[in-house]
Amino acid sequence: MLTIPYFAEDKQGSSSLSLTEMVNTENPSVHDYNFSTRELELLEIMKKLSDKYLFKIFSREKNIKLFYENIDPKKFKNHIRPHIEKYMYACFNKLAKSPDIPIYYKGEKYSNLYKSDIISVYEEEVEPVFYFNLTQEGIDYSLKLKLSGEDLTITHKKPLVLTDSPCTLLIREKLYRIPSTDSKKFLPFFDKQYINVQARSVATYMDTFVSKAVKNNHVVASGFEIKEAQTKPTAIISLERDISQQPVLVLKYKYAHKEYLAHSQSGTLVQLQNQNNTYTFTKYKRSIEWENNIIEILRSIGLEAKMGANFLPVRTKNTQHSIYTLIDWLNKNITFLQEHNIKVIQKTLENKYFVGQYSCELKNEQGEDWFDLKMIVKVGEFQVPFIKMRKHIIIGKNEYVLPNGDIFIIPQEWFTQYGDILLYAEEKDDKIILNKMHYSLLETPSNRSHEKIKNISIENAAKVPSTLNAQLRPYQLQGFNWMHYLHENNFGGILADDMGLGKTLQTITLLLKIYETQGLRQSKPQAAAQMNLFEPSTIEGFNTSGLATSLIAMPTSLIHNWLNEFQKFAPSLKVYIYSGTKRLKSKEIGKIIRHYHVVLTSYGVLRNDIAYLMHYKFHYFILDESQYIKNPNSKIYEAISKIDCHKKMAITGTPIENSLTDLWAQMNFVNKGLLGNLNFFKRHFITPISKDNNEDQEEKLQNLIEPFVLRRTKEKVAKELPPINEQILYCDMTAEQRKIYESEKSGIRNELLQTLENGGMQKTTFLALQGLTRLRLLANHPKLVNPDFKGESGKFNIIVDNLDSITNKKHKILIFSSFVKDLELIEDILKQRKIKYSKLTGKTSNRQQVVDDFEAKEDYKVFLISLKAGGVGLNLISADYVFLLNPWWNPAAEAQAINRAHRIGQTKNVFVYRFISMDTIEEKIMKLQEHKSKLADTFINSNNPFKNMNENEIKELFS
Asked: Among candidates 471, 349, 334, which has minimal Cα distance to 399?
């Protein structure tokens, strides 16, 4: 059946209408007919019933004829007929409100449209009335239409089904719309008044068909009761899995004894009771207002509706939904849900999870070296020793099985809050203990006592030793107080102040304080000669404090500097020099050094003589320029690890030279175990920070080391220092120099590319470093590669010009280079010009004399210094110019060089000139310096040099 619009002509005196033409919906005004708005709306609906429209939507055939010939019955039933009936019913709805538009029924056997076949649409949608009569023999069931006046029977009236679902019946020229049911329920009653259900099927029939009729339709009952009642509903959140097996929270409403999904359509709920074949139906009306209020409550605590009755916590940027996040949400909101009478259940999951209240209280009792962590976990009715959850938290396992078999999901915040603590804690006698050096892990960001350590007020500070021959600056006093605090609490530390701020003085002050406190005797100055094994054990003025001697290791070049500083600032401390070829090598060395307060030695001597030094237990073991032990696999690291001592301290201006491993090596020396073993440190910090830029791990590492590292920069604490004026002087190579440089670069690049193609990264790195050095030398002066070169160097000419200009104005210059041969070329120029100079390289034996000549004698204008030999331990404040002849990966090395002149005591402005050959490897090194300097800034506020070159960097470097 279809509704079809026609233009028709009513010929007077004729019983039929003349159908002139079907209305063309695409051009409805072809007959100059003025359509009403409602007629146009009807035409738009019926357009979707046209052959053309159905063909367009449902067919892949070439034309309409083939479409109708080849319609698949299943497709017609499931898709095409529902479409037709949907728009037919919409048509009837419009016609019910348009009595002025005539409707006619055309029988399929008639070619004309007869006026007597006019029909009308009943103005209201009607509902079926179900009549049930229950007797001992069974149930009689009939169906009528409920009209405004009386119920209409359809039996023997030859109803015609126009649409099946929703149902439309044509009964004696009247069209009835029945939206709440389909035509199948009416068909049996076209020919008979009722259907009989036998007694044996009554129970099932009542529970199914009758129950559904009572729920959805008007029912007239005889032999059983239908009543309406009020009930207080309950909201339920059920933890289940959806159709894709993902965990969800399903919202249900329980009325009386039945549960209904949220957002389900039924507005009426029916409950059937059968007592001795006496049936009672109770109808409950759902409270839509209450149900909507429950949804708003859930939204207010972070749930959002998904498909149907499914809900999930609102997802943040970094969260993914899992069973753990759902349980976590339930646990956090369980009290709120209970307060609002919302019940939580679990029925369909494979495991039963704990949902309820839990708590974890951390208390710690402080022992001498350890914190005894008392952690009490309460999960519902259970009290669980936290030690049983330790491994779960360390390995990231969320599920903990309670004694009753329920699974407790360990909250994610416990992993964050206690993960680091448990990572470093140990189990001992069924207790969890934490070394005191990890105390920062027990503190919250808002209450960190270690942040106060570095800001100890002068009023609460340790008293400066009365015998110290120096006035400490405020920041030096703070540094002394910090070291003294660590000393009192048996911690080690790294004093990492900027170069030139007096790290040596602060350390001497600490040692003087320690020995003075223990009864350091005042005495007359002693002879400078050192003791031997046969001298008496007690000498007036030597170590009678009762404390063991302290050992300080350093580069060889700094030993005399330390000795001078002790003699200058703390002459009451007696110092023994354990160095030189004539030193005593014996396991009995302790019989000598025990008479002294301090022993000074070099890293090389310590490494070679560890077999002797390891037999004496020192009080303090202090490393100066502690970056020397940055390689934990080196012989020197192995040696310093064997020294027996009570306490440790490290001093350095550059705690990180290459990588975070440098930091680990030094921190593991002063506080063994603070950062775990090296493999642990690499896994938890080096890889996440260096490769993944993990900010969380950066923060954790900062918090761990912060109490034990003190670094101040000159810009912040030595504001009285004159400014540094830095300038880069870019130098053009000479034509000859450029030709040699480009030829060499081309050869090195070709060799490197060939090696890279063959897959030898290790060999490539070696060749790159070799080639790099060669190009750096050529960028300075080709003579450094080929002594027979007769031409000039562009950079060298500019250096000499500036050298002449500055020395003529009575300034003093420090000239640093990575290459001794470079300095030798400058030395030749100085000799030619009869300019007096000092020179310090690794071969210099009279180091102190060389320094004294430059500092004390006005006619010494230039100090030539190799970067490696002279980067540390020099106080050269008579100079106010610094020349850096060639850049290197580590900006910190250059900073150290500059700080030979720019340090406490300097009164003149310091001018720094960096000489860079243009279009050479030197420019690229400068860029890499900037690119590679972030890491140590993050932790120590220092600089990180170039470390590992990858393949692209190698190619770029030599491009």
From this structure: 349
Crossing angle of the two packed helices 51-58 and 81-96, in degrees rounded to 10: 140
Q: Is there a contact between 804 and 862 (Cβ–Cβ < 8 Å)?
A: no
Q: Where are the domains of the chain?
A: 6-120, 127-223, 229-346, 358-442, 494-519+547-717, 724-934+948-957
pLDDT level of residue 626 (50, 70, 90 thresholds): very high
Q: At the fourth CATH level, which superfamily is domain 494-519+547-717?
A: Tandem AAA-ATPase domain (3.40.50.10810)
CA–CA gap between residue 657 and residue 896 (Å, rounded): 12
Report the pLDDT averaged over residues 370-381: 83
3-class secondary-structure state, position 171 = strand
Q: Can the peptide bond before residue 166 be classed as cis, meaning omega within 30 degrees of 0? A: yes
Q: Strands 167-171 and 195-198: what pairing?
A: unpaired
Non-local CB neighbours of 674 within 8 Å, separated by 6+ positions = 435, 437, 438, 667, 668, 704, 705, 708
Which three-class secondary structure state does DSSP give residue 84?
Answer: helix
Q: How confident is the model at residue 864 (pLDDT cuts 50, 70, 90)?
A: very high
Higher pLDDT, 139 or 805: 139
Nearest to 768 by CA among 486, 501, 957: 957
Closest of 638, 548, 636, 551 to residue 595, by C-alpha: 548
Q: How confident is the model at residue 848 (pLDDT cuts 50, 70, 90)?
A: confident
pTM score, whole prediction? 0.57
Is the CA virtual torsion 449, 450, 454, 459 positive or negative?
Answer: positive
End-to-end CA distance of the chain: 82
Q: What is the pLDDT of residues 397-440, one digit of tens each?
A: 889 999 999 999 988 888 887 877 888 887 777 778 888 788 77
